[in-house]
Design a protein that fits this description.
The protein has 19 helices and no strands. The protein is mostly helical.
């Protein structure tokens, strides 16, 4: 081959660049950030103190990694904002106005900002040092080019300078990066001078053949490595490894003329496949982000279309709140939308949710105002009852107090924190009169004492059932309860203690009955479960159903009022139901653990 042809092929071979499309260049950085964000997620701090500690460690070590610092900044302000939101919520729940809320000073924020400023300064210093180092590397490479120029200018000594030339090539490869604006021109100058040197080099055929052989071995290995990257599952890693292979291929000398096109075609084919997979990967990410945007837009529309005027009852607000929370959970399960609209769509969703919760707050504020007015009315009834409690006009006062009690029932609920106390005040005044009235009626005492003995006997028989059991326990208990209900009043001073004793033994018996029935239901459910379900799956399904039932009862409990005896009884009954359900849940979980062990 001629010297001109050899020079042209060497120049084409040495100047090859990685195949990279505009789409790849535009999306490469965000993916690196995603990868780094995934790596840092393993060290995500759980407190602001840990964030400050990690920042201190970064400052001491001199690490100014931007992605890690950004991750820590986001974590800090996320926790900071959550604390402020919680404090605002507590302030509002305590009766304060949200507009009047002023967050307390964060004890960690000043130190956090100081550390971030220190890192920013260090990052600027490092950038300046890196720029200075690149300029120094540029000068080194320019000096190498000048030395090669001097060799080329003295063709008579070209053979003697061969080893010096190879040393300069090694030094060139070991020099670090230079300013980006000088990279192409500097490389072309170096390549031109190297080609000039090889054009003038008159070494023997064996030396040239040896160089060609070694270069062929290196480039063959590079081709094989590139072909393996085609099958690598991580397309991002494969793309970045390919860039290193391109750099090594470019810095490796030429091979024999008859093999140059073949080797380059082989390497280029593998590079094309890797770059195509890289581009397809980002196109897939873009498509996923567009689909995520559509899903999030749908959630926004759902929340925005909620008719707040149609929600009136507390149960309706509770149901709507559950739906909003479910939508928020669904939102979190959806991936990112395109970066340019990701924040915008989030703000839209948050605004819609805030609209709902602000309306809910206003609604229950109105309820509290109504309850406050009811408290004034019931307080007035208490004062009227207290004026009548010492009266001895039994008939007239009885009618008046009964009328007050009827009026009490027509008044709506009061704030829960005073519901029990205001009721006790009213009830105490009424009981004071009726107790005095009962005391004046001595003829009733004999009957009440007899009733007391009957009820004590019933309690004793219930206790016997609790200790000894019965084949027909439920029927026996119900029979004794019916006998109890048919028995008249007992002395007032002993009524509460006797009733508590009665309720306690009944609760114990019903717990025993309920546990037995629960075990039977579990066994029946295990036998009658779905044909395609394993025992573990049936138990797990029962556990989830039981948890849902407990949650429903606990929600209903918040709407119950204990303003009357019946109200107290209903609250107590619901609480007992919840306790029994929790016992059943514990039995199911224990059964599941035993089944898994077996």
């Amino acid at each position: 081959m001629s010297e001109i042809e050899e020079t042209q092929l060497m120049a084409a071979e040495e100047n090859l660049q990685p195949v990279e499309t505009a789409a790849e260049a535009a999306t490469e950085t965000p993916v690196e950030e995603c990868v780094q964000a995934t790596e840092t997620a393993e060290t995500t701090p759980s407190t602001k103190e840990e964030v400050v500690a990690q920042l201190k460690a970064l400052v001491e070590s001199g690490n100014t990694d931007r992605n890690l610092c950004d991750h820590l900044r986001v974590s800090f302000y996320k926790m900071h904002n959550e604390e402020v939101a919680a404090a605002r919520q507590a302030f509002v729940e305590a009766g304060g106005n949200a507009e009047d809320f002023t967050p307390a000073e964060d004890p960690f924020e000043a130190e956090f900002k100081s550390l971030m400023a220190t890192i920013k300064e260090k990052r600027a210093e490092q950038a300046a040092e890196a720029e200075a180092e690149r300029k120094e590397n540029l000068q080194k490479k320019l000096d190498i080019i000048e030395k090669i120029k001097e060799m080329v200018a003295n063709p008579d000594s070209i053979d003697k300078n061969y080893e010096n030339f190879k040393t300069l090539e090694t030094e060139w490869r070991e020099i670090g990066p230079i300013p980006a604006e000088n990279t192409t021109e500097t490389w072309k100058n170096f390549q031109h001078q190297r080609e000039q040197f090889y054009d003038l080099l008159r070494i023997n055929h064996e030396m040239r053949a040896y160089d060609f052989k070694k270069n062929l071995e290196i480039k063959t290995r590079i081709c094989e490595a590139a072909e393996k990257l085609v099958e690598l599952e991580d397309v991002i890693s494969a793309f970045h490894q390919l860039q290193k292979l391109h750099q090594e291929f470019r810095e490796t000398g030429p091979v024999a003329k008859e093999l140059r096109e073949e080797v380059w075609t082989r390497f280029k084919s593998a590079s094309t496949l890797i770059n195509k997979r890289h581009q397809d990967h980002f196109l897939s990410i873009k498509a996923d982000e567009e689909d995520n945007l559509k899903q999030k837009q749908t959630l926004c529309e759902i929340v925005e279309n909620i008719d707040l005027d149609a929600i009136r009852k507390p149960a309706e607000w509770e149901e709507a709140t559950k739906n909003i929370i479910a939508l928020q959970a669904q939102w979190k399960s959806i991936g990112y939308a395109p970066r340019k609209v990701n924040q915008e769509i989030f703000e839209r969703f948050r605004t819609a949710c805030d609209r709902f919760f602000n309306a809910k707050t206003a609604h229950f504020r109105g309820i509290r105002e109504s309850q406050s007015e009811n408290l004034k009315l019931k307080t007035a009834l208490c004062e009227r009852a207290e004026k009548l409690q010492d009266s001895t006009d039994w008939a007239t006062t009885t009618n008046e107090l009964v009328a007050l009690q009827a009026e009490w029932k027509t008044i709506g609920p009061v704030p829960q924190k005073v519901s029990e106390s205001i009721w006790k005040r009213f009830n105490t005044a009424c009981n004071a009169f009726f107790n005095a009235k009962n005391a004046a009626n001595k003829e009733q005492r004999t009957e009440e004492e007899a009733n007391l003995q009957k009820k004590l006997d019933i309690v004793a028989r219930l206790e016997a059932l609790a200790n000894e059991g019965s084949d027909n326990l439920l029927q026996d208990v119900r029979a004794l309860q019916a006998e109890w209900n048919e028995t008249g009043h007992v002395p007032f001073r002993k009524k509460d203690k006797l009733n508590r004793r009665y309720r306690e033994i009944c609760d114990t018996l019903y717990d025993t009955i309920h546990r037995s029935a629960s075990r039977s239901r579990i066994d029946n459910a295990m036998r009658q479960g779905g044909k395609n379900m394993t025992p573990q799956q049936r138990l797990q399904k029962m556990i989830e159903e039981k948890r849902t039932e407990i949650k429903n009862y606990e929600t209903n409990l918040t709407f119950l009022s204990s303003k009357s005896k019946s109200g107290n009884s209903l609250v107590a009954d619901v609480e007992r139901r919840i306790e029994r359900l929790k016992q059943e849940l514990a039995e199911l979980e224990e059964k599941l653990a035993q089944t898994n062990a077996e």
